[in-house]
Design a protein that fits this description.
The complex is a heterodimer.
Chain A lengths: L1 E5 L2 H8 L4 E7 L2 H4 L5 H17 L5 E7 L5 H12 L3 E4 L3 H10 L4 E4 L1 E11 L2 E6 L15 H4 L16 E6 L2 E4 L1 H11 L35
Parallel strand pairs in A: 2-3, 2-4, 4-5
Antiparallel strand pairs in A: 1-6, 6-7, 8-9
Chain B lengths: L10 H7 L4 E6 L7 H11 L5 E4 L11 H10 L4 E6 L5 H13 L4 E5 L20 H13 L16 E6 L6 H14 L3 E6 L3 H13 L7 E6 L5 H10 L7 H8 L5 H19 L4 E6 L7 H8 L10
Parallel strand pairs in B: 1-2, 1-8, 2-3, 3-4, 4-5, 5-6, 6-7, 7-8
Classes of the chains: A alpha/beta, B alpha/beta.
Chain lengths: ~230, ~325
Amino acid sequence: MITAERKPFEEILALVEGHDKVLVAGCDTCVAVCLTGGEKEAEILASELRIKAQADGRTVQVEHTAAIRQCEWEYLDAIADKVNEYPVVLSMACGIGIQSMAEKFAPKLVLPAVNTNMLGMPQEHAVWLERCVACGDCRIGLTGGICPVVRCSKSLMNGPCGGSHDGLCEVKRGDEEIECAWALIHDRLKEQGREELLLEIRPPKDWSLSSSGGPRKMVKEEAKPV
Amino acid sequence: MSATEYKAGSNLEKILSAGTFAVTGECGPPKSADGSIIAEKAKLLKGYVDAVNITDNQTAVVRVCSMASGYAVQQNGVEAIMQMTCRDRNRLAMQADILGAATLGIKNILCLTGDHMSFGNHPQARGVHDLDAINLIRMYKDMRDEKKFQCGEEMTVEPRLFIGCAENPFADPFEFRALRLKKKVEAGADFMQTQCIFNVPKFKQWMAEVRAIGLHKEVKILAGITPLKGAGMANYMKKFVPGMDVPDEIVERMAAKEKGEPQQAEGKKLAVEMIKELAEVEGVAGVHIMAVEWEPAVPEIVEAAGLLPRPVVA
């Protein structure tokens, strides 16, 4: 799923500075599941903004709403009346939802209240791990179901590098240890009896299939209305 | 101006600082480890240009790197303008390479975003684009003027650089092109070279916008000239080269001559006429002649344009 984190409150305040009519728009799909930008979180942010304005002696009109999915036109239609009442929308959707909102209601000012951060797997309650970068050229079939593009800090095709120790990567993310993806791949392939796959030189990836080749577009001809 | 006041003290900087009309050329390094080609191209241009751009994997095709080629042309008596694109290097490499270039005596640097990988011979390559050209200019300016790396750490000996940028007056949105140049100047560009000019009226319109915001007094502007080798090339550039604005009358003028030598002569004649016309535009400090794989045409064009002899500066 797509995950996002709320921006620091100070940053959100700076974004809406000078605006006294703001609609906080949540999205009830991915960002709701990761407890960041659903209707409940939109309601909380709207309250925080009202409380802050009150403390500063400013009069503001801040409300909240939520779309089932901000990334789909029909769900934006469902909240259009509310959105049209406000000159500024603070969207809590992922980057896709924010842009859909901005496009649908252009040239209305649509501002991001979250940082979209990954395609993550919920490992346990309130913990997500990055598992995919949508590179467009999946090699997981050769690596025991473990993605080296996103889980190896160097995106190696032929790991592990010399920085692998005790199953850990030489890189830390903040204070957190990172598992060595290639140690995991090695162990998994061994378990599968396919460790000979590690001996083949894997060629460089085709990055033209990723965003490196320009923004992507997917069309399913067979699914188009006739 | 005393030597210590120059930012880099390059030939190009001195000529432009003196208010002399500058002439720069361009040299595309070879697609092999044959260093003799670079030396030959340098010998061809020596005495006809004040400095020569050394392209950096132009159109995203692998060639001898601009640092080694720049060093080679300087060994052969022509000052280099080393091109540096953001496509192939991250900020570590871009800083390391400029330190290396400075130790080899390279003083002029042209900061570019770089043509996209999809245009070149390795379309599957991952584009780096860690910085864009504007941030690259700023990083080099800070290295030179503040003796600071991009991370803020200090260095003992700074690279002395004359920092250049490019701008395309023919790209859209037109109303933003002069303002984008302003950003590059604010970031630290000392000189700029334009995309090849074929649509002179539009270039003049752009220069009017540049002058309206006073940019011609803050950055040395070199007008880009590409001599056309034939009508086919004119057509190709019109249709297939991104960001190029070739008016129909130019294509027609070339096509009116016979293929081969007559068209080549017309191409050179057109280049000379354009140089003379552009030199009269207020704020144009020089010309940048990009004779793509046609370097031998440059001496003749420079001479016919009345730009010889090139000044010798102390």
